[in-house]
Write a structure and sequence with these properties.
The chain has 533 residues and is an alpha/beta fold. It has 2 domains: 55-301 and 499-521, Aldehyde Dehydrogenase, Chain A, domain 1 (3-Layer(aba) Sandwich); 303-485, 3-Layer(aba) Sandwich (Aldehyde Dehydrogenase, Chain A, domain 2), CATH 3.40.309.10. The protein contains 17 helices and 20 strands. The chain has helices at residues 2-19, 24-40, 89-104, 113-129, 131-142, 146-168, 203-216, 231-242, 257-265, 279-291, 315-327, 344-360, 379-394, 426-429, 445-453, 468-477, 512-516; strands at residues 55-57, 60-62, 69-74, 79-85, 175-176, 182-190, 193-197, 220-224, 250-253, 272-276, 296-300, 305-309, 337-343, 398-401, 416-419, 436-442, 460-464, 482-485, 504-505, 518-526. The strands form 5 sheets. The chain has a 7-stranded mixed beta sheet, with helices on both faces. It has a 6-stranded mixed beta sheet with strand order 9-8-7-10-11-19, sandwiched between helices. Strands 5-6-20 form a 3-stranded antiparallel beta sheet. The longest helix is centred in the N-terminal third of the chain and has 23 residues, at 146-168. It is globular. The N and C termini lie far apart (79 Å). Residues 1-40 have low confidence and may be disordered. It binds 1,4-dihydronicotinamide adenine dinucleotide and magnesium ion. Magnesium ion binds at residues 257, 278, 281. The site of magnesium ion (MG) has 3 residues, from loops.
Length: 533
């Protein structure tokens, strides 16, 4: 209760500061004072129990072969909330054998597509039934707000599975009109055993993006969750078993990247690997795949996405969406709009309003209602973000607000805004993956196109203008896998997502993701009588 009153007070005081901008400095110290008070509050007890912390192999929860465990943390405090079985190469071997057997001997690929679709639909129903437990577990282990998990991400998990359940019995090939006395058809077959390595920023959504299409196409899976967030994948996998998924079809191995992850990427009996995470690790995964059995690879990697505000944009809407584009999920989004380019004529107004919005952002316990920002995932990310903030200050960008940790416990970072950011500064080039907005000024459309594209990444872009020709020009010129026009972070099961350049290979979601999990077989049958042509 006390924590709620404090955060309510902060947002009320800050709203009044916006009406009288001269008070901003005082309010900065108020934030500091209250953030310390907020950090002294006892964290709210999450309404869920941790029931699954072993590995899931061949339909059973088992300990790691080594017997080792590793801690899962609560990012609000840095305290351990569970000890989780730590899989490594031997457990990956066991899981791949189970997945191989379930693929080669059935029953999964041998069930009718309709039967597979029914399992996915039943799973979606169970996700809805357990929405609040899944959301609480996700929030507890990740630090994202409970509201975001409960109202958006867990429902999206169900939505994605229903979408792919719909595809399961609509996957079919072509009849091909080839020359000669031949009947030619293509069969779209599952690839086999899919290895999937997911990150910690959206554990359940990444589970959905990968497991949904792979199962719909009839593959079997070994999934390695991120070491920071092993809990919800185990819970979701348990619900899939309850929905009727046969043993061995989905195996979940918790563990670390260089051990379990690398063993999966280099396994000779894995037919395909899908990875989401950093560009650096993506390169390793592709190399391991190439050096082992040349398994097919899809990668969804980092970004430094431009968010372009033209002079004719609806400024209030652009400010709010630029704020959302960067700060959503504590800034831990691969597609975060992390280079906010603003036309010089509207720059001053945009900057003042963006700063006021950042100061109004409510930071605190993610289980508390009305909180917009929880802690970062762990001390490593927390330190990394603070290092980038320091580098921004040292390179003479203007620190408009924030710039420090929030409170004294856990991994909270103050919402931070930099102006006067130049293209060659580290904060404008690297993926910070935290609540740090960088505002850059531009003059001409041609200039901003060049600057927006001058990055090794190409994941997403945002364009704010009321001029249709400018919108069309920018959306065609920007080298990115998604361009949002007058909106941002619009995700839907049917909309493909993925990167140009070093932001990745392939697309996830929508019809495009099916291609990642299917082989195309051409069957050419000689016709006995050429006249039948
Ligand atoms: P990471 O890319 O190292 O980890 C992601 C996943 O890959 C985890 O499951 C991890 O265990 C696994 N992994 C790590 N090393 C591996 C290896 N040698 N072989 C196989 N799998 C391996 O990302 P990390 O270290 O958690 O975060 C570092 C940075 O990556 C972040 O600061 C952020 O910039 C970026 N990142 C991007 C994400 C995205 O959504 N594109 C998600 C998470 C992080
Ligand atoms: Mg790493």
């Amino acid at each position: 209760m006390a924590a709620r009153r404090i955060s309510g007070f902060i947002s009320r005081s800050l709203s009044s500061s916006i009406a009288s901008p001269g008070r901003t400095c005082n309010l900065r110290s108020e934030i500091q004072r209250f953030s310390t008070a907020a950090a002294l509050q006892e964290p709210i007890t999450p309404p869920v129990r941790i029931n699954y912390s072993q590995l899931l192999i061949d339909g059973k929860f088992v300990d790691a072969a080594s017997g080792k465990t590793f801690p899962a943390f609560d990012p609000r405090t840095g305290e351990v909330i569970a000890n989780v079985a730590e899989g490594d190469a031997e457990d990956i071997n066991r899981a791949v054998s189970a997945a191989r057997k379930a693929f080669d001997e059935g029953p999964w690929p041998k069930m009718t597509a309709y039967e597979r679709s029914c399992v996915l639909l039943r799973f979606a129903d169970l996700v809805e039934k357990h929405n609040d437990e899944l959301a609480a577990l996700e929030s507890w282990n990740n630090g994202k707000t409970y509201e975001q998990a409960a109202k958006s991400e867990v429902p999206m998990l169900a939505r994605l599975f229903r979408y792919y359940a719909g595809w399961a019995d609509k996957i079919h090939g072509l009849t091909v009109p080839a020359d000669g006395p031949y009947h030619v058809q293509t069969l779209h077959e599952p690839i086999g055993v899919a290895g999937q390595i997911i990150p910690w920023n959206f554990p359940l959504l990444m589970f959905a993006w990968k497991v949904g299409p792979a199962l719909a196409c009839g593959n079997t899976i070994v999934l390695k969750s991120a070491e920071q967030t092993p809990l919800t994948a185990l819970y979701a996998a348990k619900l899939l078993l309850e929905a009727g998924l046969p043993p061995g079809v989905l195996n979940v191995v918790s563990g670390f990247g260089p051990t379990a992850g690398a063993a999966l990427a280099s396994h000779m009996d894995v037919d395909k690997i899908a990875f989401t995470g950093s560009t650096e690790t993506g390169k390793i995964v592709q190399e391991l795949a190439a050096k082992s059995n040349l398994k097919a690879v899809t990668l969804e990697l980092g970004g430094k996405s431009p968010f372009i505000v033209c002079e004719d944009a609806d400024i209030d809407k652009a400010v709010e969406l630029a704020h959302f584009a960067l700060f959503f999920n504590q800034g831990q989004c691969c597609c975060a709009g992390s280079r906010t380019f603003v036309h010089e004529r509207v720059h001053e107004e945009f900057l003042e309003k963006s700063k006021a919005r950042a100061l109004r952002r409510t930071v605190g316990d993610p289980f508390q209602k009305g909180i917009e920002q929880g802690p970062q995932i762990d001390s490593e990310q927390f330190e990394k973000i603070l290092r980038y903030i320091k580098s921004g200050v040292e390179s003479n960008a203007t620190l408009e607000c924030g710039g420090d940790r929030f409170g004294s416990k856990g991994f909270y970072v103050q919402p931070t805004v930099f102006s006067n950011v130049k293209d060659d500064m580290l904060i404008a080039k690297d993926e910070i993956f935290g609540p740090v907005q960088s505002i850059l000024k531009f003059k001409e459309i041609d200039e901003v196109i060049k600057r927006a594209n001058a990055t090794r990444y190409g994941l997403a872009a945002g364009v704010f203008t009321q001029n249709l020709d400018t919108a069309n020009r920018l959306s065609r010129a920007l080298r990115a896998g998604t361009v949002w026009v007058n909106c941002f972070d619009v995700f839907d099961a049917a909309i493909p997502f993925g990167g140009y350049k070093m932001s990745g290979i392939g697309r996830e979601k929508g019809i495009y993701s099916l291609h990642n999990y299917l082989q195309v077989k051409a069957v050419v049958t000689a016709l006995k009588n050429p006249a039948w042509l």
